[in-house]
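Re-running the complex after MR caught last week's input typo. The corrected sequence lines follow. Everything else is unchanged.
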Amino acid sequence: MTMDCQQCSDDLTAYIDGELDESAARQLKNHLETCDPCRAEYEELRDSATFVSEHAAELEPVPEIWNNLRSRIAELPAPAGSSGVSRLLVMNRWAAMLATVAAMVVLALGLWGFERYEQSRSELESYMNEYIQMRTAQERQYELQMIQERANALQNEPGAEQTTDNPFADMRPVALTNPFHVEAR
Amino acid sequence: MRSGDMRSLRLAIAGAVLGTTLFPTMPLLRAQTWDLNKTRSVAESQHEIVMILIRKKEFDKAAEEANKIFKMKWPDDQEPVLLKELKGLADQFHLNQQSALAVRLLETNISIFKTVKSKAAIWKEKGYLLEKMGQHDKALDCFREAQRLEKNGIHP
Amino acid sequence: MIERAKKGDIDAYQSIYDLFSRKVLNFIYRMVASIEEAEDLTQETFVTVYQKLESLKDDDKFEPWLFRIARNYVYQKYRKRVPPTVSVDSQDEEGRSASELADERKDPQEEFQAEELDDVIRAVVLELPEKYREVFVLSAIQDLSYQEIAEIVGRSLASVKTDIHRARLQVRKRVKEYLKA
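Corrected-run output:
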Protein backbone atom coordinates (compact mmCIF):
# COMPACT_ATOMS: atom_id res chain seq x y z
CA MET A 1 0.00 0.00 0.00
CA THR A 2 1.46 3.37 -0.97
CA MET A 3 1.24 6.53 1.07
CA ASP A 4 0.06 9.94 -0.11
CA CYS A 5 1.84 13.18 0.72
CA GLN A 6 -0.77 14.36 3.25
CA GLN A 7 -0.52 11.14 5.23
CA CYS A 8 3.26 11.31 5.01
CA SER A 9 3.31 14.88 6.26
CA ASP A 10 1.02 14.02 9.19
CA ASP A 11 3.29 11.16 10.24
CA LEU A 12 6.67 12.83 9.76
CA THR A 13 7.19 13.91 13.38
CA ALA A 14 6.15 10.52 14.72
CA TYR A 15 8.56 8.91 12.24
CA ILE A 16 11.44 11.11 13.40
CA ASP A 17 10.61 10.25 17.04
CA GLY A 18 10.50 6.51 16.31
CA GLU A 19 6.85 6.34 17.28
CA LEU A 20 5.44 4.77 14.10
CA ASP A 21 4.94 1.02 13.94
CA GLU A 22 7.21 -0.94 11.63
CA SER A 23 4.78 -1.13 8.71
CA ALA A 24 3.89 2.56 8.73
CA ALA A 25 7.55 3.53 9.11
CA ARG A 26 8.49 1.39 6.14
CA GLN A 27 5.75 2.93 3.98
CA LEU A 28 6.82 6.40 4.94
CA LYS A 29 10.46 5.64 4.26
CA ASN A 30 9.56 4.32 0.82
CA HIS A 31 7.53 7.45 0.11
CA LEU A 32 10.43 9.71 1.13
CA GLU A 33 12.71 7.92 -1.30
CA THR A 34 10.47 8.87 -4.21
CA CYS A 35 8.99 12.22 -3.20
CA ASP A 36 11.30 15.24 -3.16
CA PRO A 37 8.95 17.74 -1.47
CA CYS A 38 8.20 15.31 1.38
CA ARG A 39 11.86 14.49 1.75
CA ALA A 40 12.70 18.19 1.97
CA GLU A 41 10.05 18.66 4.65
CA TYR A 42 11.36 15.62 6.54
CA GLU A 43 14.91 17.00 6.49
CA GLU A 44 13.78 20.41 7.74
CA LEU A 45 11.77 18.90 10.58
CA ARG A 46 14.59 16.56 11.48
CA ASP A 47 17.16 19.38 11.49
CA SER A 48 14.88 21.55 13.58
CA ALA A 49 14.43 18.71 16.09
CA THR A 50 18.19 18.20 16.23
CA PHE A 51 18.73 21.92 16.72
CA VAL A 52 16.39 21.99 19.70
CA SER A 53 17.75 18.91 21.38
CA GLU A 54 21.36 20.05 20.90
CA HIS A 55 20.96 23.64 21.99
CA ALA A 56 18.22 23.63 24.60
CA ALA A 57 20.16 24.33 27.78
CA GLU A 58 19.23 22.34 30.85
CA LEU A 59 19.08 23.68 34.36
CA GLU A 60 20.75 21.76 37.15
CA PRO A 61 18.75 21.54 40.38
CA VAL A 62 20.45 23.68 43.01
CA PRO A 63 21.14 22.02 46.40
CA GLU A 64 18.68 24.40 48.08
CA ILE A 65 15.75 22.65 46.41
CA TRP A 66 16.55 19.37 48.12
CA ASN A 67 17.53 21.02 51.40
CA ASN A 68 14.23 22.88 51.64
CA LEU A 69 12.33 19.81 50.49
CA ARG A 70 13.98 17.67 53.13
CA SER A 71 13.08 20.13 55.88
CA ARG A 72 9.48 20.14 54.77
CA ILE A 73 9.30 16.36 54.50
CA ALA A 74 10.72 16.02 58.01
CA GLU A 75 7.74 17.96 59.33
CA LEU A 76 5.23 15.73 57.57
CA PRO A 77 3.76 12.64 59.26
CA ALA A 78 5.49 9.39 58.26
CA PRO A 79 3.72 7.50 55.47
CA ALA A 80 1.49 4.61 56.59
CA GLY A 81 3.16 1.22 56.40
CA SER A 82 6.58 2.54 57.31
CA SER A 83 7.14 -0.05 60.06
CA GLY A 84 7.93 -3.70 59.48
CA VAL A 85 4.95 -4.92 61.48
CA SER A 86 2.34 -2.68 59.84
CA ARG A 87 3.56 -3.94 56.44
CA LEU A 88 1.80 -7.19 57.32
CA LEU A 89 -1.49 -5.37 57.58
CA VAL A 90 -1.57 -3.80 54.12
CA MET A 91 -4.57 -3.21 51.99
CA ASN A 92 -4.44 -6.73 50.50
CA ARG A 93 -7.63 -8.43 51.66
CA TRP A 94 -6.30 -11.95 51.34
CA ALA A 95 -3.21 -11.15 53.37
CA ALA A 96 -5.40 -9.57 56.05
CA MET A 97 -7.64 -12.64 56.11
CA LEU A 98 -4.66 -15.00 56.35
CA ALA A 99 -3.18 -12.90 59.16
CA THR A 100 -6.44 -13.13 61.11
CA VAL A 101 -6.61 -16.91 60.69
CA ALA A 102 -2.94 -17.27 61.70
CA ALA A 103 -3.52 -15.14 64.81
CA MET A 104 -6.47 -17.32 65.83
CA VAL A 105 -4.38 -20.49 65.43
CA VAL A 106 -1.58 -18.99 67.51
CA LEU A 107 -4.04 -17.95 70.22
CA ALA A 108 -5.38 -21.51 70.30
CA LEU A 109 -1.83 -22.80 70.91
CA GLY A 110 -1.49 -20.66 73.99
CA LEU A 111 -0.61 -17.08 74.90
CA TRP A 112 2.88 -17.73 76.21
CA GLY A 113 3.84 -19.54 72.97
CA PHE A 114 2.51 -16.61 70.92
CA GLU A 115 4.48 -14.16 73.04
CA ARG A 116 7.69 -16.13 72.60
CA TYR A 117 7.16 -16.33 68.81
CA GLU A 118 6.54 -12.60 68.52
CA GLN A 119 9.60 -11.76 70.56
CA SER A 120 11.98 -13.91 68.52
CA ARG A 121 10.51 -12.75 65.20
CA SER A 122 10.77 -9.16 66.29
CA GLU A 123 14.41 -9.71 67.20
CA LEU A 124 15.03 -11.35 63.85
CA GLU A 125 13.35 -8.50 61.98
CA SER A 126 15.51 -5.98 63.85
CA TYR A 127 18.60 -8.04 63.10
CA MET A 128 17.63 -8.15 59.42
CA ASN A 129 16.65 -4.48 59.19
CA GLU A 130 19.93 -3.36 60.70
CA TYR A 131 21.88 -5.15 57.96
CA ILE A 132 19.50 -4.02 55.22
CA GLN A 133 19.81 -0.40 56.31
CA MET A 134 23.59 -0.62 56.21
CA ARG A 135 23.59 -2.15 52.72
CA THR A 136 20.94 0.29 51.51
CA ALA A 137 23.13 3.19 52.59
CA GLN A 138 26.03 1.63 50.67
CA GLU A 139 23.90 1.24 47.54
CA ARG A 140 22.72 4.79 47.77
CA GLN A 141 26.33 5.92 47.90
CA TYR A 142 27.04 3.96 44.72
CA GLU A 143 24.00 5.50 42.99
CA LEU A 144 25.00 9.04 43.95
CA GLN A 145 28.53 8.49 42.70
CA MET A 146 27.14 7.11 39.43
CA ILE A 147 24.89 10.14 38.95
CA GLN A 148 27.71 12.55 39.77
CA GLU A 149 30.18 10.87 37.47
CA ARG A 150 27.69 10.75 34.62
CA ALA A 151 26.99 14.45 35.11
CA ASN A 152 30.73 15.17 35.10
CA ALA A 153 31.24 13.03 32.02
CA LEU A 154 28.47 14.89 30.16
CA GLN A 155 29.91 18.24 31.09
CA ASN A 156 33.49 17.34 30.22
CA GLU A 157 32.99 15.21 27.18
CA PRO A 158 29.90 15.79 25.06
CA GLY A 159 28.73 12.44 23.82
CA ALA A 160 30.83 10.58 26.37
CA GLU A 161 27.77 8.82 27.70
CA GLN A 162 27.17 7.37 24.27
CA THR A 163 30.74 6.19 23.72
CA THR A 164 31.02 4.07 26.87
CA ASP A 165 29.07 0.94 27.51
CA ASN A 166 30.69 0.47 30.90
CA PRO A 167 28.37 0.89 33.87
CA PHE A 168 31.28 0.30 36.23
CA ALA A 169 33.13 3.35 34.84
CA ASP A 170 30.58 5.36 36.78
CA MET A 171 30.74 3.36 39.99
CA ARG A 172 33.16 2.68 42.75
CA PRO A 173 31.88 -0.70 43.90
CA VAL A 174 33.62 -2.79 46.49
CA ALA A 175 34.95 -5.39 44.04
CA LEU A 176 36.42 -2.86 41.64
CA THR A 177 39.39 -2.85 43.95
CA ASN A 178 40.82 -6.24 43.12
CA PRO A 179 41.42 -7.80 46.56
CA PHE A 180 44.03 -10.16 45.20
CA HIS A 181 45.96 -7.27 43.68
CA VAL A 182 45.91 -5.02 46.75
CA GLU A 183 46.90 -7.68 49.23
CA ALA A 184 49.73 -8.95 47.04
CA ARG A 185 51.50 -5.61 47.29
CA MET B 1 39.15 3.29 25.85
CA ARG B 2 40.19 4.66 29.23
CA SER B 3 43.59 3.84 30.78
CA GLY B 4 41.87 1.86 33.54
CA ASP B 5 40.14 -0.25 30.93
CA MET B 6 43.46 -0.78 29.08
CA ARG B 7 45.07 -1.99 32.28
CA SER B 8 42.20 -4.32 32.96
CA LEU B 9 42.34 -5.62 29.40
CA ARG B 10 46.08 -6.29 29.64
CA LEU B 11 45.62 -8.10 32.95
CA ALA B 12 42.76 -10.08 31.52
CA ILE B 13 44.79 -11.13 28.48
CA ALA B 14 47.67 -12.15 30.76
CA GLY B 15 45.24 -14.01 32.94
CA ALA B 16 43.62 -15.72 30.00
CA VAL B 17 46.99 -16.99 28.81
CA LEU B 18 47.95 -18.06 32.32
CA GLY B 19 44.51 -19.43 32.97
CA THR B 20 44.30 -21.55 29.86
CA THR B 21 47.53 -23.20 30.83
CA LEU B 22 46.72 -23.52 34.53
CA PHE B 23 43.03 -24.45 34.54
CA PRO B 24 43.35 -27.65 32.54
CA THR B 25 45.90 -28.68 35.13
CA MET B 26 43.67 -27.84 38.12
CA PRO B 27 43.40 -31.43 39.31
CA LEU B 28 47.21 -31.41 39.53
CA LEU B 29 47.10 -28.14 41.48
CA ARG B 30 44.74 -29.68 43.99
CA ALA B 31 46.83 -32.73 44.35
CA GLN B 32 50.11 -30.87 44.60
CA THR B 33 51.33 -28.41 47.14
CA TRP B 34 50.02 -25.06 46.05
CA ASP B 35 51.96 -21.97 45.33
CA LEU B 36 50.10 -19.08 46.95
CA ASN B 37 51.69 -16.35 44.90
CA LYS B 38 50.82 -18.07 41.66
CA THR B 39 47.28 -18.72 42.87
CA ARG B 40 46.80 -15.11 43.81
CA SER B 41 48.19 -13.96 40.50
CA VAL B 42 45.75 -16.17 38.61
CA ALA B 43 42.91 -15.02 40.85
CA GLU B 44 43.81 -11.41 40.23
CA SER B 45 43.63 -11.92 36.48
CA GLN B 46 40.49 -13.97 36.79
CA HIS B 47 38.88 -11.13 38.71
CA GLU B 48 39.64 -8.75 35.82
CA ILE B 49 38.16 -11.21 33.34
CA VAL B 50 34.98 -11.36 35.39
CA MET B 51 34.78 -7.57 35.55
CA ILE B 52 35.23 -7.26 31.79
CA LEU B 53 32.52 -9.85 31.16
CA ILE B 54 30.17 -8.01 33.50
CA ARG B 55 30.94 -4.77 31.72
CA LYS B 56 30.08 -6.49 28.44
CA LYS B 57 26.87 -7.73 30.07
CA GLU B 58 27.84 -11.36 29.51
CA PHE B 59 26.59 -12.21 32.96
CA ASP B 60 26.26 -15.98 32.70
CA LYS B 61 29.81 -16.25 31.45
CA ALA B 62 30.96 -13.84 34.15
CA ALA B 63 29.36 -16.00 36.84
CA GLU B 64 31.01 -19.10 35.40
CA GLU B 65 34.42 -17.43 35.48
CA ALA B 66 33.77 -16.05 38.96
CA ASN B 67 33.14 -19.53 40.34
CA LYS B 68 36.59 -20.61 39.15
CA ILE B 69 38.21 -18.23 41.62
CA PHE B 70 36.67 -20.08 44.54
CA LYS B 71 37.39 -23.54 43.14
CA MET B 72 41.13 -22.91 43.31
CA LYS B 73 43.08 -24.33 46.22
CA TRP B 74 43.31 -21.71 48.93
CA PRO B 75 44.84 -21.89 52.39
CA ASP B 76 42.55 -21.11 55.33
CA ASP B 77 44.19 -17.80 56.09
CA GLN B 78 43.05 -16.40 52.74
CA GLU B 79 39.41 -16.63 53.77
CA PRO B 80 39.00 -12.89 54.50
CA VAL B 81 40.24 -12.00 51.00
CA LEU B 82 37.95 -14.59 49.44
CA LEU B 83 35.00 -13.35 51.45
CA LYS B 84 35.64 -9.81 50.27
CA GLU B 85 35.87 -11.09 46.68
CA LEU B 86 32.69 -13.17 46.93
CA LYS B 87 30.63 -10.36 48.42
CA GLY B 88 32.11 -7.85 45.99
CA LEU B 89 31.35 -9.95 42.93
CA ALA B 90 27.83 -10.72 44.16
CA ASP B 91 27.32 -6.99 44.59
CA GLN B 92 28.45 -6.40 41.02
CA PHE B 93 25.82 -8.78 39.70
CA HIS B 94 23.21 -7.24 41.97
CA LEU B 95 24.03 -3.69 40.85
CA ASN B 96 23.61 -4.90 37.27
CA GLN B 97 20.13 -6.22 37.99
CA GLN B 98 21.37 -9.79 38.10
CA SER B 99 20.42 -10.48 41.70
CA ALA B 100 19.46 -14.10 40.97
CA LEU B 101 22.99 -14.74 39.67
CA ALA B 102 24.38 -13.01 42.74
CA VAL B 103 22.39 -15.32 45.02
CA ARG B 104 23.55 -18.37 43.07
CA LEU B 105 27.17 -17.23 43.32
CA LEU B 106 26.86 -17.04 47.10
CA GLU B 107 25.07 -20.40 47.33
CA THR B 108 27.60 -22.14 45.10
CA ASN B 109 30.65 -20.94 46.97
CA ILE B 110 29.64 -20.75 50.65
CA SER B 111 30.91 -24.29 51.23
CA ILE B 112 34.58 -23.31 50.83
CA PHE B 113 34.36 -21.04 53.86
CA LYS B 114 35.23 -22.61 57.19
CA THR B 115 34.73 -19.88 59.77
CA VAL B 116 31.39 -19.03 61.34
CA LYS B 117 32.04 -15.36 60.77
CA SER B 118 32.42 -15.86 57.00
CA LYS B 119 29.40 -18.12 56.71
CA ALA B 120 27.21 -15.75 58.69
CA ALA B 121 28.33 -12.84 56.51
CA ILE B 122 27.40 -14.77 53.36
CA TRP B 123 24.00 -15.78 54.76
CA LYS B 124 23.26 -12.15 55.59
CA GLU B 125 24.28 -11.00 52.13
CA LYS B 126 22.10 -13.66 50.57
CA GLY B 127 19.23 -12.57 52.78
CA TYR B 128 19.71 -8.97 51.71
CA LEU B 129 19.60 -9.92 48.04
CA LEU B 130 16.49 -12.07 48.48
CA GLU B 131 14.79 -9.23 50.33
CA LYS B 132 15.60 -6.92 47.41
CA MET B 133 14.09 -9.54 45.09
CA GLY B 134 10.89 -9.43 47.10
CA GLN B 135 11.35 -12.86 48.67
CA HIS B 136 10.86 -11.73 52.24
CA ASP B 137 10.27 -15.12 53.84
CA LYS B 138 13.35 -16.66 52.24
CA ALA B 139 15.31 -13.56 53.27
CA LEU B 140 14.19 -14.04 56.86
CA ASP B 141 15.33 -17.67 56.71
CA CYS B 142 18.80 -16.54 55.68
CA PHE B 143 19.02 -14.00 58.47
CA ARG B 144 17.74 -16.63 60.90
CA GLU B 145 20.58 -18.92 59.87
CA ALA B 146 23.12 -16.10 60.18
CA GLN B 147 21.75 -15.22 63.62
CA ARG B 148 21.90 -18.84 64.73
CA LEU B 149 25.49 -19.16 63.54
CA GLU B 150 26.52 -15.99 65.35
CA LYS B 151 24.78 -16.99 68.58
CA ASN B 152 25.86 -20.60 68.69
CA GLY B 153 28.90 -20.69 66.44
CA ILE B 154 27.74 -24.13 65.32
CA HIS B 155 27.12 -25.33 61.77
CA PRO B 156 24.91 -28.42 61.33
CA MET C 1 13.61 2.18 45.53
CA ILE C 2 10.02 3.43 45.20
CA GLU C 3 8.82 0.71 47.54
CA ARG C 4 11.35 1.78 50.17
CA ALA C 5 10.39 5.41 49.74
CA LYS C 6 6.73 4.49 50.26
CA LYS C 7 7.70 3.14 53.67
CA GLY C 8 9.26 6.47 54.65
CA ASP C 9 12.88 5.76 53.72
CA ILE C 10 14.23 9.27 53.16
CA ASP C 11 17.41 8.00 51.55
CA ALA C 12 15.36 6.10 48.98
CA TYR C 13 13.29 9.22 48.37
CA GLN C 14 16.43 11.25 47.85
CA SER C 15 17.55 8.73 45.24
CA ILE C 16 14.24 9.21 43.46
CA TYR C 17 14.69 12.97 43.67
CA ASP C 18 18.24 12.73 42.30
CA LEU C 19 17.04 10.69 39.34
CA PHE C 20 14.07 12.84 38.34
CA SER C 21 14.54 16.36 39.67
CA ARG C 22 16.50 17.59 36.66
CA LYS C 23 13.83 16.45 34.22
CA VAL C 24 11.01 17.93 36.27
CA LEU C 25 12.83 21.22 36.82
CA ASN C 26 13.49 21.65 33.12
CA PHE C 27 9.96 20.73 32.10
CA ILE C 28 8.52 23.29 34.49
CA TYR C 29 11.10 25.88 33.45
CA ARG C 30 10.14 25.54 29.79
CA MET C 31 6.53 26.05 30.75
CA VAL C 32 6.82 28.97 33.15
CA ALA C 33 9.94 30.70 31.77
CA SER C 34 11.23 31.69 35.18
CA ILE C 35 14.12 29.92 36.89
CA GLU C 36 13.01 30.87 40.39
CA GLU C 37 9.46 29.83 39.80
CA ALA C 38 10.61 26.57 38.25
CA GLU C 39 12.72 25.83 41.33
CA ASP C 40 9.80 26.61 43.67
CA LEU C 41 7.37 24.48 41.71
CA THR C 42 9.87 21.63 41.53
CA GLN C 43 10.07 21.68 45.31
CA GLU C 44 6.27 21.72 45.61
CA THR C 45 6.04 18.83 43.17
CA PHE C 46 8.37 16.64 45.16
CA VAL C 47 6.68 17.47 48.47
CA THR C 48 3.38 16.38 46.96
CA VAL C 49 4.97 13.27 45.48
CA TYR C 50 6.28 12.34 48.93
CA GLN C 51 2.87 12.83 50.48
CA LYS C 52 1.01 10.90 47.80
CA LEU C 53 3.54 8.22 46.91
CA GLU C 54 1.58 5.51 48.70
CA SER C 55 -1.38 6.10 46.39
CA LEU C 56 0.72 5.07 43.37
CA LYS C 57 -0.38 1.51 42.61
CA ASP C 58 1.93 0.71 39.71
CA ASP C 59 5.54 1.72 40.32
CA ASP C 60 6.27 1.43 36.59
CA LYS C 61 3.98 4.41 36.05
CA PHE C 62 5.95 6.60 38.40
CA GLU C 63 7.41 8.94 35.78
CA PRO C 64 4.14 9.87 34.04
CA TRP C 65 2.51 10.23 37.45
CA LEU C 66 5.30 12.52 38.61
CA PHE C 67 4.98 14.70 35.54
CA ARG C 68 1.20 14.92 35.98
CA ILE C 69 1.77 16.40 39.43
CA ALA C 70 4.34 18.83 38.05
CA ARG C 71 1.97 19.79 35.25
CA ASN C 72 -0.82 20.46 37.73
CA TYR C 73 1.40 22.89 39.59
CA VAL C 74 2.28 24.65 36.33
CA TYR C 75 -1.39 25.14 35.48
CA GLN C 76 -2.25 26.30 38.99
CA LYS C 77 0.36 28.99 38.51
CA TYR C 78 -1.00 29.92 35.11
CA ARG C 79 -4.47 30.49 36.52
CA LYS C 80 -3.03 32.88 39.05
CA ARG C 81 -0.97 35.10 36.83
CA VAL C 82 -0.70 36.70 33.39
CA PRO C 83 0.86 34.39 30.83
CA PRO C 84 4.58 35.11 30.43
CA THR C 85 5.63 37.47 27.67
CA VAL C 86 8.33 36.26 25.41
CA SER C 87 11.62 37.31 26.92
CA VAL C 88 14.99 36.28 25.71
CA ASP C 89 16.59 37.55 28.89
CA SER C 90 15.08 35.26 31.49
CA GLN C 91 17.53 35.16 34.38
CA ASP C 92 17.64 34.06 37.97
CA GLU C 93 18.06 36.40 40.95
CA GLU C 94 21.80 36.47 40.46
CA GLY C 95 21.37 37.58 36.87
CA ARG C 96 22.39 34.31 35.26
CA SER C 97 20.52 32.79 32.33
CA ALA C 98 19.60 29.15 31.92
CA SER C 99 22.42 28.36 29.55
CA GLU C 100 24.93 29.90 31.94
CA LEU C 101 23.53 27.91 34.82
CA ALA C 102 23.47 24.75 32.75
CA ASP C 103 27.11 24.78 31.86
CA GLU C 104 29.63 26.98 33.55
CA ARG C 105 32.66 25.41 31.98
CA LYS C 106 32.38 26.57 28.38
CA ASP C 107 34.77 29.26 27.18
CA PRO C 108 33.29 32.76 26.79
CA GLN C 109 32.85 32.48 23.04
CA GLU C 110 31.07 29.14 23.25
CA GLU C 111 29.04 30.35 26.22
CA PHE C 112 27.80 33.39 24.31
CA GLN C 113 26.80 31.30 21.32
CA ALA C 114 25.10 28.66 23.50
CA GLU C 115 23.22 31.39 25.32
CA GLU C 116 22.02 32.93 22.09
CA LEU C 117 20.84 29.62 20.70
CA ASP C 118 19.10 28.71 23.93
CA ASP C 119 17.46 32.14 23.92
CA VAL C 120 16.07 31.38 20.48
CA ILE C 121 14.68 28.06 21.64
CA ARG C 122 13.24 29.56 24.80
CA ALA C 123 11.49 32.33 22.86
CA VAL C 124 10.13 29.93 20.29
CA VAL C 125 8.82 27.52 22.93
CA LEU C 126 7.16 30.31 24.87
CA GLU C 127 5.32 31.43 21.76
CA LEU C 128 3.58 28.08 21.51
CA PRO C 129 0.06 27.81 22.92
CA GLU C 130 0.11 25.97 26.27
CA LYS C 131 -1.49 22.86 24.80
CA TYR C 132 1.30 22.57 22.22
CA ARG C 133 4.06 23.80 24.50
CA GLU C 134 3.71 21.04 27.06
CA VAL C 135 3.68 18.19 24.55
CA PHE C 136 6.53 19.78 22.65
CA VAL C 137 8.68 20.09 25.77
CA LEU C 138 7.86 16.58 26.92
CA SER C 139 8.67 15.04 23.53
CA ALA C 140 11.47 17.15 22.08
CA ILE C 141 13.28 18.21 25.24
CA GLN C 142 12.34 15.62 27.88
CA ASP C 143 12.37 12.76 25.39
CA LEU C 144 9.33 10.94 26.78
CA SER C 145 7.39 8.51 24.61
CA TYR C 146 4.06 9.52 23.10
CA GLN C 147 2.30 6.98 25.30
CA GLU C 148 3.84 8.47 28.44
CA ILE C 149 2.97 11.97 27.28
CA ALA C 150 -0.63 10.93 26.62
CA GLU C 151 -0.83 9.60 30.21
CA ILE C 152 0.63 12.80 31.60
CA VAL C 153 -1.61 15.24 29.74
CA GLY C 154 -4.68 13.01 29.90
CA ARG C 155 -5.40 12.99 26.17
CA SER C 156 -5.54 10.24 23.56
CA LEU C 157 -2.42 9.02 21.80
CA ALA C 158 -3.79 10.24 18.45
CA SER C 159 -4.47 13.71 19.85
CA VAL C 160 -1.00 13.92 21.38
CA LYS C 161 0.62 12.79 18.13
CA THR C 162 -1.22 15.50 16.17
CA ASP C 163 -0.38 18.22 18.71
CA ILE C 164 3.29 17.27 18.80
CA HIS C 165 3.45 17.43 15.03
CA ARG C 166 1.75 20.83 14.94
CA ALA C 167 4.04 22.14 17.67
CA ARG C 168 7.10 20.95 15.80
CA LEU C 169 5.90 22.56 12.56
CA GLN C 170 5.48 25.86 14.37
CA VAL C 171 8.87 25.56 16.07
CA ARG C 172 10.55 24.74 12.76
CA LYS C 173 9.02 27.82 11.17
CA ARG C 174 9.96 30.15 14.02
CA VAL C 175 13.49 28.77 14.44
CA LYS C 176 14.11 29.45 10.75
CA GLU C 177 12.83 33.01 11.10
CA TYR C 178 14.89 33.75 14.19
CA LEU C 179 18.07 32.36 12.73
CA LYS C 180 17.60 34.32 9.50
CA ALA C 181 17.06 37.56 11.43
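None of the earlier attempt is carried over here. The helical segments of chain A are 5-16, 22-34, 36-55, 63-75, 93-109, 111-156, 160-163, 179-184. The CA atoms of residues 92 and 103 of chain A lie 17 Å apart.
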